[in-house]
Amino acid sequence: MSQCRRNSARGKVIDPYVKLLLDAMKHSGCAVNKERHFSCEDCNGNVSGGFDASVSQIVLCQNNICNQAHMNRVVTHELIHAFDHCRAHVDWFTNVRHLACSEVRAANLSGDCSLLNEILRLHFGLKQHHQTCVRDRAIRSILAVRNISKEVAQKAVDEVFESCFNDHEPFGRIPHNKTYARYAHRDFQNRDRYYSNI
């Protein structure tokens, strides 16, 4: 088994973000088969991963993922796209606004813009910094997969930002760290019990 496969398997067992998303996918009727829906490959450029909607598969760029924490963030980011694909029937290939919405959600909910990650990137600010990071990372992600101008990507993100930034499903909140992700996972697991008693 490759290091990439071992690290992705470890993340699926211990990372609270990943565990919640796998449960949410199953709950939404899109159970994830770890062998079929994940692929470790060498990738061009500095891309860490991607979601291939045509085959419903997450590609993990083993040559660009440097450690377990990075692997967990990439898997989480791509699982958010898979979750959106499952629940919202996203038109990935012709509607840039759909892509922008999923990229905003992935940057917002995956930990990409956590304070620690931003400090490690030497990017930090006080006022509205999380929103700025989410916006910037969504634009970067769109430009990595679409041959469009930065202005078109920015316009698409601006058009969907408010509603997509505030869509926290399946977390119910922005999970700023693993503790919040654990709470979100616990709450997600208790939803059905709560609603079945009403």
Account of the protein in words:
The chain is mainly α. It is built from eight helices and three strands; from the N terminus they run H-H-E-E-E-H-H-H-H-H-H. It has helices spanning 3-14, 16-27, 68-88, 96-109, 115-120, 129-145, 150-165, 178-196, and strands spanning 38-41, 49-52, 57-61. A three-stranded mixed β-sheet has the order 1-3-2, with helices on one face. Strand 2 and strand 3 (57-61) form a beta hairpin. The N and C termini lie far apart (47 Å).
The total count of helices amounts to 8
Strand content: 5-15%
What characteristic shape results from the CA principal axes?
Answer: globular
- Work out the number of β strands: 3
* Unreliable parts: none
Mean pLDDT: 87
Strand order of the largest sheet: 1-3-2
Question: How would a crystallographer describe the biggest sheet?
Answer: 3 strands, mixed
What is the first-to-last residue Cα distance?
Answer: 47 Å
Percent of residues in helices: 55-70%
Set out the fold topology.
Layout (H helix, E strand, L loop, with lengths): L2 H12 L1 H12 L10 E4 L7 E4 L4 E5 L6 H21 L7 H14 L5 H6 L8 H17 L4 H16 L12 H19 L2
Parallel strand pairs: 1-3
Antiparallel strand pairs: 2-3
Descriptive terms for the model:
single chain; 198 residues; mainly alpha; 8 helices; 7% strand; globular
Task: Please give a quick description of this structure.
This protein is mainly α and 198 residues long.
